[in-house]
Amino acid sequence: MSADRSGTASPVHRTVEAVWRMESARIIGGLARVLRDVGLAEELAQDALVAALEQWPREGVPERPAAWLTATAKHRAIDAIRRKALHERKAHELAWEIEEQLKDAAPDLGSAIDAAFDDPIGDDTLRLVFVACHPVLSREARVALTLRLLGGLATGEIARAFLVPEPTIAQRIVRAKRTLAEARVPFEVPAAAELAERLSSVLEVIYLVFNEGYSATAGEDWVRPAVCEEALRLGRILAERMPAESEVHGLVALMEIQASRIRARVGPRGEPVLLLDQDRSRWDRLLIGRGLAALARAEATGAPAGGLGPYAVQAAIAACHARAATADATDWPRIAALYDGLAELAPSPVVELNRAVAVAMAFGPAAGLEIVDALADDPRLADYHLLPSVRGDLLAKLGRRDEARREFERAAALTRNERERELMLARAAACAAAG
């Protein structure tokens, strides 16, 4: 993003960036449905972004900036189709599809593109998720491509989330788009027989997008509400399309309840506010109600199939927090028991770390520290900043403040988020001051 002479992004450029974050997935989805080429769709959407960066500072921000970007992207699509190199590759396919869709319409290419771009019944963004999660791609490629296309994340942000070099992610995304194009993956939500096998991947990437908004991996902001809202919107659409799937409702419940805390997660200066310190009067009761209703649907649909899945169990944990009027009223033994179940359903070192926190709250910090110390040599957590953060918190509660200070300083060195780093350093300083 460009900056003004002071080195700071101008208000117009910040507006462009904000609109792009919110609208890019929808624009790319609309283009991809028309062009049947995700890579080309992203390129043309980026062209529209460049045009906005060039024109809006001179001409002012349009009254409807999202509509401006969409219209510009449509024009880029029309120009691309008319160019000979692309026309030779796609003309027959596009002409047939447009003719079938618009049998009695005027044969004007611009009108045809407008009509094909308009999607009042389906959802281009949801289709884009299923395309990005196609089995022809590896899991890593699916996640990276979806975070790029759906979350609007830069390649560097995705690389930090995966803890791999940025060129690796860039190559992964390029190869993923090429693979989709070569496999001629249809831009559609798959049929029922194919849907189940791709659902787990879709749920995974939607939740990863949500988490990037809920707790940003990098940058100056602790939360990015617009990213959470997009993931939540996708989850709700999926729940409408798949009402019999317990885990879809479980994921929606989890995101609804977590999203209810967003306003309370940030202090007046943008600093992080941890769960137990949050002003619960700022929690969104409407979102909590929606989340509890979604959890009830997950429980109802999951019971005949043998119980709750991992997302629904996590939603049940979130519900324990949501139902507690105060932090002291939290049912920590219930949460610890739910984490025991989650560890059996979806074993991972991160689940164990979260279980350690719950056990510490229910049965004392020493019990939690025993679990954390057992994770110390797990290579999967070697660069995970929350391991020393949790250990530092438990050590501080046990009065081992010098050890806690060192853990908080280590956590600060590992995190890529500036706000989180400030919090860890402040906690380290508090330990040093307490002696």
Descriptive account of the structure:
By secondary structure, this protein is mostly helical. 70% of the residues lie in helices and 1% in strands. The chain has 20 helices and 2 strands. It has helices at 11-35, 38-59, 65-82, 84-101, 109-117, 124-132, 139-149, 155-162, 166-183, 192-214, 225-241, 246-259, 285-302, 310-323, 332-345, 349-363, 365-374, 386-397, 401-414, 418-434, and strands spanning 218-219, 416-417. Strands 1-2 form a two-stranded parallel ribbon.
Number of strands: 2
- Uncertain spans, ≥5 residues at pLDDT below 50? 1-7, 102-107
What does the overall shape look like? Answer: globular
Helical fraction = over 70%
Record keyword descriptors for this entry.
435 residues; two-stranded parallel sheet; 2 strands; globular; disordered N terminus
